[in-house]
Design a protein that fits this description.
alpha+beta; globular; 5-stranded antiparallel beta sheet; 22% strand; 6-stranded antiparallel beta sheet
Amino acid sequence: MSAPVESGGAPGVPEVRYRVPEGPFSADAVLGPLLPLLTPWLAERRWYEGTRVDRLLPCTATVVREGAGALVVAVVTAHGPTAPAAGTRYQLLLGVRPDLPERLAPYALGTVPHGPWAGEQVYDALADPALTGMLLRALAADRAPGLRLERAGRYPLPVGLVPRLLTGEQSNSAVAYGDRLLLKLYRRPEPGPHTESEVLRALTAQDCPRTPRLYGSLHLTDPDGESLTLGLIEEFVPGAQDGWTSAVRSARDHLTDTDGTGGAFTARARTLGQAVAEVHQALGRAFPRGRLSAAEIAEDAARMKRRLADAVREVPQLGRHQTRLTAVFDAYGRLAGRGCPVLAQRTHGDLHLGQALYTPGGWHIVDFEGEPATPAGERVLPQPVLRDVAGVLRSFDYAARTALDALGDAANPAEQARRRRRADAWALRNRRAFCAGYTAAGGEDPSCRTEQLTAFEAERAVYEAVYEARHRPHWLPVPLAAVHRLAGAVT
């Protein structure tokens, strides 16, 4: 069912051996024996969208081998209670070895019961630097069977860098190579052009200083002949501080400060606004821009109301605010009829403090996939830039509330009320600084578009409420507090 193939090697590149699945049922042959091990493992992954896997089917796979270890790059289709009828595709990177070193034992899935690797050990390949290093070498030499790296320019792909898996609560996975490269792997691969790859390719062509340079996007063809985007290789941003972590730390310092010097973040908030405006301007040059018609705005508002209605069914606590939030969305929907233009262009699509990295050279904006819950076809549509602005503003509010909750209840109600006022003041001050920086750098002045901004913030808060109800119920009060505030903006 499979045949070993040896490469001739290239100067400076170790000889690589591949076991290439052959025939129309190669995915079944390679993945079929692994499915009993993969099913329970997949259901426990942070990036799996669901509570259990009822059925797992092989979609496509390829194998890269070097020495005793093999890397299986696979796409499977998972069926579960919340999956669509056709199932949801997931990308898996699996290692197979005859014997598993002790350092990899925590990542073991089990022993392969039968098939080409009967008796061998299968494990999470991203935990094995030997396999992630092998993958980069194979891609650099264009010798990864079935995998295709579509280059973004003339920049050579360096090899020989030490790989390390990046950890954190992510919907995807990432491996850093030294301080130069980042391999980002999409756990839910999609056919056709990928939003992030398309955006970064355009921004790389413009030498945008606020976004990482793209080296190329990684593709694999499925059995129906569709090209699936598995991930991309981009410039790694060394020495970066995560914007979300920095903001929460600042807010916490502000809440516990007694001399008025703690929690300063406004300078960074202002420069973040400038960076976002620069990225929006670069996107405006690279992609079409225009005004939304009255019908398009009305449909956008109607879509927001439909999502609100769906959210109320899932999070009943939103119900008491539904009437007022509907009025917020209706006010936005009437803008064009009142002669207020709404400009639209390609945007980030899921912008918040966690998508911003602070370095000595300033801010970098990353992760241009768009909102994962939004259909791929909608993510590429021109959007009002203030949707991105609203995402960051909500993030400041979220950081303040998160810091407040982390401190726990104060010893007395007066102290708790003082902390709450200080949290609100921290968020307001940084929201204003961000908007001032955005406007100073040539962005659309958010203070002149309050109806848009309120609607987009409310839309985001409703989304957050659903997310927290599903995944982190103890955080649900954070977006609910924002919904209460935004609903109160209606007079």
